[in-house]
């Protein structure tokens, strides 16, 4: 059964704050579509994919031909651009088809996959990427991820086909997910597509973050987070590359988890074997990152204070060295130019305070 979308579904809030679909705006005698819940409240929209998008509220999104149906931190739909739109008649029924030639197929997810926050799950992301990849091979389509798709709210170019969203298990039924089992060992930047790119970046970045964290180079979380983000940007070598917003979400999730939870353990446990010599299975902490070691404990208050003190000492030494170098350079230039040197003229020349310049002159003349 198909239904032409003739107006935008209205939304209202339940007492617990969740958005639900007000069916009055649809052809409810034929169709009731929860798919509107699987679109961002403020989607990025455009009339041409070559143009920069504009963020609008959902009640205005139906005026645009293209939108992003997923969010950087939340996978709401699996979307494909079909090589042959007619092939969709012989596969799992999409939730909707959109585009002038119905070349975009969308599968609404009953349980969106989060990539940030306490409910984020690397295991779920890995499974999502596997289902997306396997389904793409069967339907002959290219995964869109959070890229531009023909707007399913744009009435002239949309057919709604299925009223209920899919669970990942339902989509995976009948698919060959062997790729899923070997994903971490075989997926590279060159071969990853769709959400496989997000999954691959998560795995490669977290391993880099483990080693970087253990180096003890970073005393403040802000410094560590910036380093993780730089490393993520350097590893975003996919074709096409992930959007900056996606990379920032992944880097933020990895940095937060590693900083607050990651700790190494004893040598026996780190070898991955228990007391009976059996291989210890890796587990997920909060479903977010698969640790190569034991699940860590949060930093103690004493450890936090120690790190802050170390960072304060290091920062003070760096500033003192920088100020000394600046004053020394300015002093040499003034002497060479035969300019009378005093604490006030030196302070004015370098921008440091008068007491600092005076103290430096006393100690270095």
Could you give a short description of this structure?
Helix content is 39%, strand content 14%. It is an alpha+beta fold. It folds into 3 domains: 3-177, no CATH class; 187-298, no CATH class; 302-364, no CATH class.
Task: Report what the structure shows.
The protein is α+β, with helices and mostly antiparallel strands and 365 residues long. The protein has three domains: 175 residues, no CATH class; 112 residues, no CATH class; 63 residues, no CATH class. Helices cover 39% and strands 14% of the residues. The strands form four sheets. It has a six-stranded antiparallel beta sheet with strand order 1-12-8-9-7-10, with helices on one face. A hairpin with a 5-residue loop joins strand 2 and strand 3. The protein is elongated.
